[in-house]
C-alpha cells in the first residue's frame, strides 16, 4: 500500500549518527518519519519492522500503516519517542515511578484534556511503549494526589455505587433487542 | 466548575492497576472508597511501602507508614468501647528532622467519625486498617509492636496486650514481603514464631528484635528459614545464642555477656579470616596504648587489634578491626603505639 503524505506533521530534525528512518501512516493517513532509535521504544512497531524485514535501504519506500492510532496521537508519540530515544534504561523498579518527577517537557506534552489523554493511553498501550505508559500513569496518578474520595469521583468521573446500580438497573429493565 | 470528561471508568484494568501501584498510600485509601470496583482494584493492586508500623498504647492505637522513606504518616486512633465516635489524628513528618533545614511536622489534622459500632474500640480500627495495608504488600521495613505503656511507673496491661497479639496473629495469614522486620514484643516465643512464619523468607533480609532487659529463648527461632536466610540481625534482647547460629549473618548487633575471643574471631568475614589465617598467628587482642585523649577515644571503637610479624624483624603489621572497618598499619615494633593509625578509618569515612 502506498499512501502519499497529506501533512507531514513531524520532521525528524537531524539524525547524523543514525541515518535509518522509517515512515508510519496513521489511521487518518498522516505520514510520519521516525528514526530507528526512536521507533525501538515501541515494541509493537519494532516487532513489525523486524517481521517485515525492513532495512536502511527499503525503509522509506515501505511506510508502515498503523490503523489503530490517529494522526494527533501519533504526532505526540513520535515526539515523545524522538525526545527519549537516547535515554538510559530505567533501573529495576524500586520506588522509581513513585519518586520520579515528570520532566517539564513531558508534562507540557501530556497537558491535554482527559478525552485526548484517554485516547493517547489506548494508543500507547497498542504500540507498547512502556516509558510513555509510565508517564501517562504518573499524569493520571497526579490527578488523585491529596484528593478526597468525593473530589476523586468528580475528577475521574467515577459514579457512586448507587449511581452505578441505577445504571445497571435501567439497562436490565430495558427490553433490548429481545423485546 | 466544568465537569471534566470521565477518564477512569474506561481505562484498561491493568493500566489502572499500574496507576494505583504508584499512588501514595493515603491516595490509595481514598480511591478505594470511591466505588466497589475501585475497592476491588486497590485491593488487588500491588502495594509498595517503605515502612509500615502498628502499635497500641494505653489510650490509643496507631498505624504509621512511609511511601518512600522521606515522609512518615501517622494515624492515631482514639475510641473506647461503648462510644460511637472515633477520633483520628492524622499527621505527617519528615523521617529525618534536621533543625533549620526542615519542619518537624508537615501537617497535623484531626477528624471525628460518628455513628460507629459501639462494640468496637481503637484496636479494632487499627487492625482493620493494618489488614487492608497488608493486602498485596511489599515493604522495606515492617515494625510490629504491642501495647506500650508510658509513664514513670508502667504497669502491666495483660488483657489488652494478649488481645492485640491474638488478633494480630489471626489476621496475618498471607506472607508479608518485607525486607526488614523490627519486632518489639514480649518474650512469648510461640507468638514470635507465628509472626515470623508470615514473613516471606526469600525477601526478609534483616531481623531486629527488641525487648530491653528480657531474655529470649531463640532455639526454635534459629531453626526457621526466616532466621537462616536473613543477612543481618540486631538483637536488643538477651539470649543464649550459639556462635554457629550467627555465622551466616553479614552484620550482627547484639548484647553479649560473655564471648570467647576465638568465637569472636569466627564472626569475622570469612575472606578476612582467610587473609589473617595465612599469617598463622595465634588470635590475640593487643590494643595499642594511645598517648593522647583523642586517640584513646578513637581506639575505643576498635574491637580487636591483631599484630602480625613482618619479614623484617623490626616491623610489625597492626590490624585493627572495628564494627564496619578494618585498618592496617605497618609500624616499627618499638613505636607501635604512636604509628598505628587508629584514626585512619574515621578520616576515610
UniProtKB/TrEMBL annotation, chain A:
Q: Does the keyword Glycosyltransferase apply?
A: no
Keywords associated with the record: Ubl conjugation pathway
Give the GO terms filed under biological process for this record. ubiquitin-dependent protein catabolic process
Give the matching InterPro entries: SKP1, SKP1-like, SKP1-like_dim_sf, SKP1/BTB/POZ_sf, Skp1_comp_dimer, Skp1_comp_POZ
Task: Family membership, please give it.
Answer: Belongs to the SKP1 family.
The species this protein belongs to is Caenorhabditis latens
Domain SKP1 component POZ, first and last residues per copy: 23-85
* Entries under PANTHER family matching the protein: SKP1
Matching entries from CDD domains are given as:
BTB_POZ_SKP1
Q: Where is the SKP1 component dimerisation domain?
A: 130-166
Task: Tell me what this protein is called.
Answer: Skp1-related protein
From TrEMBL, chain B:
Q: Which domain of life is it from?
A: Eukaryota
Q: Which residue range or ranges hold the DUF38 domain?
A: 166-264
Species, as recorded = Caenorhabditis latens
Where does the record place the F-box domain?
8-47
Q: Which PANTHER family match?
A: DUF38 DOMAIN-CONTAINING PROTEIN, UNCHARACTERIZED C.ELEGANS PROTEIN
The identity of this protein, by name, is: Uncharacterized protein
> GO annotations under biological process?
innate immune response
Amino acid at each position: 500500500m502506498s499512501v502519499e503524505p497529506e501533512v507531514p506533521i513531524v520532521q525528524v530534525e537531524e539524525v547524523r549518527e543514525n541515518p535509518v528512518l522509517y515512515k508510519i501512516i496513521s489511521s487518518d493517513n498522516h505520514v510520519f518519519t521516525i528514526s530507528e532509535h526512536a521507533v525501538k521504544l515501541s515494541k509493537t512497531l519494532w516487532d513489525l519492522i523486524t517481521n517485515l524485514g525492513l532495512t536502511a535501504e527499503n525503509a522509506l519506500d515501505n511506510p508502515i500503516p498503523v490503523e489503530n492510532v490517529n494522526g494527533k496521537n501519533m504526532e505526540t508519540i513520535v515526539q515523545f519517542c524522538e525526545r527519549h530515544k537516547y535515554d538510559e534504561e530505567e533501573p529495576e523498579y524500586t520506588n522509581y515511578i513513585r519518586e520520579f518527577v515528570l520532566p517539564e517537557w513531558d508534562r507540557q506534552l501530556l497537558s491535554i484534556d482527559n478525552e485526548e489523554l484517554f485516547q493517547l493511553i489506548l494508543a500507547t498501550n497498542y504500540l507498547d511503549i512502556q516509558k510513555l505508559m509510565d508517564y501517562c500513569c504518573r499524569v493520571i496518578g497526579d490527578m488523585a494526589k491529596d484528593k478526597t474520595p468525593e473530589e476523586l469521583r468528580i475528577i475521574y468521573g467515577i459514579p457512586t455505587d448507587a449511581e452505578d446500580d441505577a445504571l445497571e438497573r435501567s439497562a436490565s429493565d430495558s427490553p433490548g433487542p429481545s423485546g | 466548575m466544568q465537569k471534566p470528561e470521565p477518564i477512569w471508568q474506561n481505562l484498561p484494568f491493568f493500566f489502572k492497576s499500574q496507576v494505583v501501584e504508584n499512588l501514595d498510600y493515603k491516595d490509595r485509601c481514598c480511591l478505594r472508597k470511591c466505588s466497589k470496583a475501585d475497592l476491588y482494584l486497590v485491593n488487588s493492586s500491588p502495594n509498595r511501602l517503605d515502612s509500615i508500623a502498628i502499635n497500641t498504647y494505653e489510650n490509643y492505637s496507631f498505624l504509621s507508614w512511609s511511601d518512600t522513606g522521606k515522609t512518615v504518616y501517622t494515624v492515631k486512633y482514639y475510641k473506647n468501647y461503648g462510644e460511637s465516635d472515633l477520633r483520628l489524628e492524622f499527621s505527617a513528618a519528615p523521617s529525618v528532622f534536621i533543625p533549620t533545614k526542615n519542619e518537624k511536622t508537615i501537617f497535623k489534622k484531626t477528624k471525628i467519625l460518628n455513628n460507629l459500632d459501639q462494640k468496637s474500640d481503637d484496636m479494632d480500627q487499627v487492625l482493620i486498617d493494618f489488614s487492608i495495608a497488608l493486602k498485596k504488600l511489599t515493604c522495606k521495613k515492617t515494625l510490629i509492636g504491642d501495647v506500650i505503656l508510658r509513664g514513670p511507673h508502667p504497669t502491666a496491661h495483660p488483657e489488652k496486650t494478649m488481645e492485640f497479639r491474638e488478633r494480630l496473629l489471626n489476621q496475618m495469614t498471607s506472607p508479608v514481603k518485607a525486607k526488614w522486620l523490627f519486632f518489639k514484643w514480649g518474650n512469648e516465643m510461640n507468638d514470635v514464631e507465628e509472626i515470623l512464619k508470615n514473613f516471606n523468607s526469600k525477601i526478609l533480609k534483616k531481623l531486629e528484635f527488641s525487648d530491653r532487659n528480657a531474655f529470649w529463648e531463640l532455639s526454635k527461632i534459629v531453626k526457621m528459614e526466616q532466621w537462616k536466610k536473613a543477612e543481618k540481625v540486631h538483637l536488643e534482647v538477651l539470649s543464649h545464642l550459639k556462635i554457629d547460629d550467627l555465622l551466616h549473618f553479614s552484620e550482627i548487633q547484639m548484647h553479649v555477656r560473655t564471648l570467647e575471643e576465638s568465637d569472636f574471631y569466627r564472626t569475622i568475614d570469612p575472606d578476612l579470616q582467610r587473609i589473617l589465617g595465612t599469617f598463622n598467628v595465634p588470635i590475640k587482642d593487643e590494643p595499642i596504648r594511645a598517648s593522647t585523649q583523642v586517640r584513646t577515644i578513637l581506639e575505643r571503637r576498635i574491637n580487636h587489634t591483631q599484630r602480625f610479624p613482618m619479614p623484617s624483624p623490626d616491623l610489625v603489621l597492626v590490624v585493627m578491626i572495628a564494627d564496619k572497618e578494618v585498618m592496617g598499619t605497618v609500624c616499627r615494633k618499638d613505636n607501635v603505639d604512636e604509628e598505628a593509625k587508629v584514626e585512619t578509618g574515621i578520616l576515610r569515612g
